[in-house]
Amino acid sequence: MIDDFIKQLERQGKVIKTQKAYRNSWTRFTEWLAKENPHPTPLGGLPDPQMATQLDVANFKRYAVRHYKPNTVNLTMTHLNVIFRWLMQKGVIPDNPVEHIDRVPTPQSSPKWLTGAEQNSLVRTVRKYGNVREMAMVMLMMQAGLRVQELCDLRLKDITISERKGKAVVYNGKHGKYREVPLNVDIRRCLTKYLESRSKESEYLFDSQRNDKVCVRAVQSQMERYRKLTGIDHLTCHSLRHTFGHELALRKTPLDVIARLMGHMKNDGTPNLAMTVRYTLPSEEDLARAVEELSWT
Question: Which GO terms describe its molecular function (predicted)?
Fold first, then answer.
């Protein structure tokens, strides 16, 4: 049964990682169910997980809460809900036993971002081991909040630079959203140096040795290299984007402005503040520092 469901995910275009996550959630549940019901059913064999009841799912949730992190439990329950809903739609089962099971409440966690010292360490490392091209990539993600795919999609005509101002136009952001991001003086200076050094004719801002357009994986590999060189474990393309959002929040920038700069917009064009407010949440370091200040020594 689960193989048929995974094939359905594949037809829907879900990536391998997502397919594996669903399979892992189903395995987690079925293995627990088999251990809880070791005796054969009246007709012989182990209980059929497809026919699990709401009580089975509730008992599994109680078990999972004791053995897994809350986010893992909630993700598993979400996957099970989708799987059982699919079974119901196919007429295999009469109802969805997961539908009315509450999720585990969890505090909203803040994204991973770079501190001021970590940002400085990254810039020093790129200056020492990298080049102006890689510095331009870092600056566009860290000080303009571009997603890595948006960075790769940037064309020369999407960048406007003058002595006093500049902007990057994202024509096809996440979910196809359009936005314009102003470029500060540091980015403009860095991009000017990079553009002067370009030798390959390409419509895209960042090309590669083999192609006119750099790929996402290549940029991610570069950031992985700098993660190892700097020792900043949470350094990724996306943590650079999160750094942009957090730095704006630290400077008391209104949430609707941050939302617009980050591309957090609803389908009706209004700011999605629920996505943006997380940049105002305390980090793990903030929480640790607050408790440490209570120390008597």
Answer: DNA binding
| CA 17 distance to own-chain centroid | 13
- Do 263 and 153 form a contact (C-beta atoms < 8 A)? no
208/223 Cα distance (integer angstroms): 16
Domain ranges of the chain: 2-89, 116-290
From first to last of the 297 residues of the chain, give the pLDDT tens digit. 889 999 999 998 888 889 999 999 999 999 999 888 876 666 555 568 888 999 999 999 999 999 999 989 999 999 999 999 999 999 999 999 999 999 888 777 778 999 999 999 999 999 999 999 999 999 999 999 999 999 999 999 999 998 899 999 999 888 889 999 999 999 999 999 999 998 888 999 999 888 899 999 999 999 999 999 999 999 999 999 999 999 999 999 999 999 999 999 988 889 999 889 988 888 777 888 889 888 887
Q: Tokens 């996505």 — which residue?
A: 275
Specify the residue for token string 């997380």: 278
User: HSE-up of 238 (CA within 13 Å, CB side)?
Assistant: 4
Q: What pTM value is reported for the model?
A: 0.68
Structural contact between residues 167 and 183, judged by C-beta atoms closer than 8 angstroms: yes
Q: Specify the CATH number for 116-290; select among 1.10.443.10, 2.60.120.10, 2.60.120.260, 1.10.3720.10.
A: 1.10.443.10
Closest CA to 114 of 221, 274, 237: 237
Q: How far apart are CA 183 and CA 276, in angstroms?
A: 20
